[in-house]
Predict the structure of Apyrase.
Amino acid sequence: LKCRGTYAEGICQTNGPSHGIVRGWVPLMRCFHLLLLVGLFSPSVPWLVLGGDLRGSGGHGEGTVSYVIVFDAGSSGTRVHIFDLQLHPGGAHMPDVDLAKHPSQMLKVKPGLSDFARRQDLDGCQRNLEELLHFAGQHVPIGSREQTPVILKATAGLRLVPQAQGDAVLGRVQETLRQSGYRFEDDWAGIIKGKEEGGLAWVAANYLAGTFSGDSEESLGVIELGGGSTQVTFQIGRSEKVAESDHFQFATALGKSYSLYAHSYPGFGQDYAQEKLRLELPEKTNDPCYPAGYDRNGNGASGEIVRGTGDTRHCQALIRGFLFSEGHAPGRYEHEIPLRGKFAAIENFYYVRKDAALPLGNDIAANFSEANQLCSDSSLGGEADLLHSKNGGDVGSPRECFALSYHSALLRELGVDGRLGISAQVMRQINGGDVDWALGAALVHYLAERPPDVLPPLKAQVNFWLAVAVVLMLFAGIMLMRRLAFRGGNLPKLVSESNMPRLIGAATKKK
């Protein structure tokens, strides 16, 4: 075998009929080197298996349907949500949620966990959960249940019971969910923090609004008025300082991150505020926050009758004086950050207007006039309401008079003012989906459990492509020997049948 020139030129000569074969060996080696370089600097190897994780093989892989079960344990009852989620191949900021199916995949049972805690009825608590789990089983295939996470978040109601009773109920909840056949960890069931409730509602609202899939930096804030507390959440700058107890962070599947101010005002939910004001009324026989002509029992044991006067202006003055004067109240909170942009006003903002057959709107002045008109309507009161309250009914009914007055006062205290570009639109749905923290909880949990989209380690790529090169070199050597044998020629001395495997092995080790 005689060669002249450089190796890169691939110019070699041989004696005998095999010279064409050996001449072709050098270009083949150049192809092997090129293959190795491609492997070393390739940005990704889509079908490379690392650590036993094969993308798209199930669970949270792209293109597969996953399920997340969320229990919303409120003060009046517990509602289960079953969400179908799917992240499509090719990359997306957020998974798709089947919103068309979701209304049929919800069920609420009463009473709430706080009621079971007060009565220390752990067996009753378990039966309620098992009923909801049975319902969930109708929507989650048997083969998917071991991979389907189940989450339970209790809201303000359970915070108000003695801790020992609350812990006992949560212990039974955890025991029941551990035995459910679904994926569950003990810290997936507990009392939701105020900032978490607000942050998850923000995730749900902006998912439905399409914020995460667009290029716009604007997002939709959320003011959530519950029965026991009010949550205010909106996006802030990444470098903006905020109290740790009010800071919520969220990132999409592709790493787009958001920093949020999320504060909860416990005790300033609609129902709690109404009850507190009733107890602190300076006049024990008149209540300006109830409709004109509405009679109810008083707070004391004397059996006095309290008559509604339907005076909206006086009602709002009492709300500001007795409720919003506290240091942790809306508009007074020490670490409060001024509102900015547009907001969705949800939960009781919506339900009250729906019950009163009022249009949805964002004009505070209109809210005041509607409250004034509704409160002065004497047809809402009378002996029927008094009889209802005496028989143990809801002594806050009809609630719309106080509620509309409270809504207007609350939004003003928070700083909602359309003239300053800070508006609040009352709503329940966005693009056909309910703005509910449970949806946000399902999305956040799904993304947290999904394997990150990271590049395979360089070492793994190198090892992979070296293995490919070795296999191809061995294959080429075998084909070379077969072709020489077919031609009946003799191998040159340096490349003989006896030392061909040794030369190929040496070349492989060298590479």
Q: What stands out?
A: The CA atoms of residues 110 and 357 lie 26 Å apart. The mean pLDDT is 79. The chain has 15 helices and 19 strands. The radius of gyration is 35 Å.
